[in-house]
Write a structure and sequence with these properties.
Layout: E1 4-10, E2 14-20, E3 26-33, E4 45-46, H1 48-66, E5 73-80, E6 85-88, E7 99-100, H2 108-114, H3 125-128, H4 137-147, H5 151-156, E8 161-164, H6 165-173, E9 183-185, H7 186-189, E10 195-196, E11 201-202, H8 204-210, E12 219-221, E13 230-232, E14 236-243, H9 244-251, E15 260-264, E16 268-275, E17 286-291, E18 299-306, H10 310-318, H11 329-333, E19 343-345, E20 363-365, H12 373-399, E21 406-409, H13 416-426, E22 430-433, H14 438-451, H15 457-463, E23 466-470, H16 476-493
Parallel strand pairs: 1-5, 5-14, 9-12, 15-21, 21-22
Antiparallel strand pairs: 1-2, 2-3, 4-7, 6-8, 10-11, 13-14, 15-16, 16-18, 17-18, 19-20, 22-23
């Protein structure tokens, strides 16, 4: 019987299960959203039990849709929203608190206290490749230990464990309280602010500084693991695990040094493969693990992380009621020839790369009575392209590599207005592959490599095909003028929050 490989893609706003054939084609798919919880300004949470219930539901539905059973699956991979942290009781499977989402800013004071050190915000960057920021998991664990009654005592007795969402999903998939695997992979571990990039292990000095017991943390495993993490759905090996952006890098087959991709989702994330070299950033990027396939050495990447891109469209839909469906943002954006001179800086969770300023907040500048809903929608899309340009500039400065084209993936790449403006403001072609949801595909590739479903990276490269390319059509002078305006707008967003 023909075998397939599947992937769970546990994202910020939804969870889906995708089933792929050997050519990387989609055989089955089901997706469900989960609630976004906002208890206070700047706080963002998810209900982990709801997320797990959605995960089980999408797996059953996708298999049924495709007319398949678990016996048809050779392996399952997992990919996930990174830096979203939770702590639960391994004996009962019950979380002590909601998952604290990567966009959440409540750990700002913790990060500020840790930065009162000679190295400041870069205190742990030599070990981790990351600045001190609310983005990462470690300070979130500290917050739970400090603020949720009984958790620190439970951790001391082995009754409280931590995981990013990959760890939570895999633990439940492989048995939960009945022997579930408490593991993570190197890519997710590299986003906690707790892992030493070179040793690929938890850093005891950082754990001491944050007051986090090592026993709470999952075992760190390769992203593609032939020894398997465990089994799901009866006898299906679970053997692939990648943070969502690293999964997209694998799905885009960016296996060569200097190859890059940009994923347009809730946030926007550009990764550049730097090979076996740990390349420190001097221009506000993150140094991270790209993937580790079995016993082969780890591959590293430079990353530019943008907090709010697709989430801005969702905000216009849900908070302001501009439209009923996110895809309609393009209809409004196309109703006007340009943004009417306004800029929308969506610093809802502060500014991520290349600024790392948690005290920034969102602004719309340049408003006149001429502006209508169409201009605001267009400015929202253009904000994604401008932020990507900032990250690309930093990446070229850090790496010395001049990109000649950009591989793009994620839900927003079907927005033609955005993709054309992206090519215009970058001055390079933007390329969309046939399978644009490369995050799930990358997790499936990791799992399939572990069981020999795909024999090697050349098999995966043969699967990658171009669907559409957008060529830049804007004059250089216009591009420079628009970008100068954006940089001025970003300055207005900075240092808004006061203690």
């Amino acid at each position: 019987m023909t075998k397939y490989v599947a992937a769970i893609d546990q994202g910020t706003t939804s969870t889906r299960f995708m089933i792929f054939d050997h050519a990387g084609g989609v055989v089955g798919l089901h997706q469900l959203e989960h609630q976004q919880l906002y208890p206070q300004p700047g706080w963002v949470e998810h209900d982990p039990l709801e997320v797990w219930a959605r995960t089980r539901a999408v797996m059953d539905a996708a298999l049924a849709q495709a007319g398949l059973t678990p016996a048809d699956l050779a392996a399952v991979g997992v990919t996930n929203q990174r830096e979203t942290a939770l702590v639960w009781n391994p004996k009962t499977g019950k979380p002590y608190y909601n998952a604290i989402v990567w966009q959440d800013t409540r750990t700002d004071k913790i990060c500020g206290e840790l930065a009162r050190h000679a190295a400041g915000q870069d205190r742990f960057r030599p070990q981790t490749g990351l600045p001190l920021a609310t983005y990462f998991s470690g300070p979130k664990i500290r917050w739970i230990l400090d603020h949720v009654p009984g958790v620190r005592q439970a951790a001391a007795h082995g009754e409280a464990v931590f995981g990013n969402m990959d760890t939570w999903v895999i633990w439940n998939l492989t048995g939960g309280p009945d022997g579930g695997a408490h593991i993570t992979d190197v890519t997710n571990a590299s986003r906690t602010l707790l892992m030493n990039l070179r040793a690929l292990d938890w850093d005891d000095d950082i754990l001491d500084a944050l007051g986090i017991p090592r026993a709470m943390l999952p075992a760190i495993r390769p992203s593609s693991d032939g020894e398997f993490y465990g089994y799901a759905l009866g006898k299906v090996p679970v053997c692939g695990d990648l943070g969502d952006q690293q999964a997209a890098l694998v799905g885009q087959t960016c296996f060569g040094v200097g190859e890059a991709k940009n994923t347009y989702g809730t946030g926007c994330f550009m990764l550049l493969n730097t090979g076996s070299q740990v390349v420190p950033s001097r221009h506000g990027l993150l140094t991270t693990v790209a993937y580790k396939l079995g016993a082969a050495p780890a591959v590293y990447a430079l990353e530019g992380s943008i907090a709010i891109t697709g989430a801005l469209v969702q905000w216009l839909r849900d908070n302001l009621g501009f439209f009923d469906f996110s895809r309609h943002v393009e209809d409004y954006a196309r109703s006007v020839p340009d943004s009417g001179g306004i800029y929308f800086v969506p610093a809802f969770s502060g500014l991520f790369a290349p600024y790392w300023q948690s005290d920034a907040r969102g602004v719309i500048v340049g408003l006149t009575r001429f502006i209508n809903k169409g201009h605001i929608c267009r400015a929202a899309l253009e904000a994604t392209a401008y932020q990507t340009r900032e990250v690309l500039d930093a990446m070229e400065q850090d790496s010395g590599v001049k990109l000649t084209s950009l591989k793009a993936d994620g839900g927003m790449v079907y927005n033609h207005t955005l993709m054309q403006f992206q090519a215009d403001i970058l001055g390079v072609p933007v390329v969309r592959p046939v399978v644009a949801e490369t995050t799930a595909l990358g997790a499936a590739y990791a799992a399939g490599l572990a069981v020999g479903y795909w024999r090697g990276l050349d098999d995966l490269r043969r699967n990658w095909q171009v669907d559409r390319t957008w060529q830049p059509a804007m004059e250089a002078a216009s591009r420079a003028k628009l970008y100068r305006g954006w940089k001025r707008a970003v300055e207005r967003a900075m240092h808004w929050v006061e203690e």
